[in-house]
């Protein structure tokens, strides 16, 4: 059984930033994630909500298949950044890749009907969301790269920090740290997906773009700050040995269905050409 901290606020009343969806352990005036140059505070100013308010009836669960053995999880209408999480039906148990702020009884029932969770792994701080609530509900650990530890808004023993560039999460599932977008920016490789061709889960560490022929590497997406060329070059080198046909991006249906490993390498080459001249 997972051990938890005793916290002062009632369940579901921890403050959640309306702009980025990050949950904090106590009320505060500002959101550090949004004050960072990779995110933003809207002109209307800082605003807060709670999981109780999100569950009050205006939203409901949104669950749709995203690929073989992969189920997308989110809410309608979308909230904050609008990403969707992915339930990956791996051999050793379901893994939730990335996280969303919304969690209600319908979602809990759906995930349990699929076999529950064995672990949660998250690509970067913009998707930390209500990860502690998810982990407590399904009694599983959350794996985060230690390089991004400073961005955790609500500490809990369910959070497990890993170091280095590679960590085996389970049989067939390995976490890699390309370090794009954030120093701990993480992707997950699935080498025994149902098609047997491999898949890469990238969040927006590697961003699928609208023409689906290339991917992008950005330090900040909303503020259009490109990633440093040396970081992109090192990321491409780290991922070069991996084989994967599909790549699952951060948004609903933003998926490269074929030749994704070649597309990532070609995109890195193109990026370095334009940024280095």
Automatic annotation (TrEMBL):
Residues 82-238 form the Metallo-beta-lactamase domain. InterPro entries: Metallo-B-lactamas, RibonucZ/Hydroxyglut_hydro. It comes from the Bacteria. PANTHER family: METALLO-BETA-LACTAMASE FAMILY PROTEIN (AFU_ORTHOLOGUE AFUA_5G12770) (PTHR36839:SF1). This is MBL fold metallo-hydrolase.
């Amino acid at each position: 059984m997972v051990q938890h901290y005793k916290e002062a606020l009632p369940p579901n009343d921890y403050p959640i930033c309306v702009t980025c969806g990050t949950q904090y352990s106590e009320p505060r005036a500002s959101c550090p994630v949004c004050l960072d140059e990779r995110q933003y505070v809207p002109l209307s100013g800082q605003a807060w909500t709670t999981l109780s308010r999100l569950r009050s009836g205006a939203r409901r669960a949104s669950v749709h298949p995203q690929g073989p053995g992969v189920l997308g999880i989110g809410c309608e209408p979308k909230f904050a950044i609008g990403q969707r999480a992915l339930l990956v039906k791996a051999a050793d148990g379901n893994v939730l890749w990335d996280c969303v702020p919304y969690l209600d009884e319908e979602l809990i029932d759906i995930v349990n009907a699929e076999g529950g969770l064995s672990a949660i792994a998250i690509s970067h701080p913009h998707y930390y969301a209500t990860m502690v609530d998810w982990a407590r509900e399904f009694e599983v650990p959350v794996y985060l790269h230690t390089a991004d530890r400073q961005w955790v808004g609500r500490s809990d023993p369910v959070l497990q920090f890993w170091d280095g560039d590679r960590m085996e999460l389970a049989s067939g599932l390995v976490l890699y740290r390309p370090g794009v977008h954030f120093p701990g920016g993480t992707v997950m490789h699935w080498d025994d997906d149902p098609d047997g061709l491999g898949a890469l889960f990238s969040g927006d560490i590697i961003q699928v773009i609208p023409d689906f022929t290339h991917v992008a590497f950005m330090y900040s997406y909303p503020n259009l700050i490109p990633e440093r060329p040396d970081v992109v070059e090192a990321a491409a080198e780290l991922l070069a040995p991996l084989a994967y046909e599909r790549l699952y991006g951060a948004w609903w249906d933003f998926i490269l269905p074929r030749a994704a490993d070649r597309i990532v390498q070609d995109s890195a080459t193109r990026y370095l050409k334009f940024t280095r001249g």
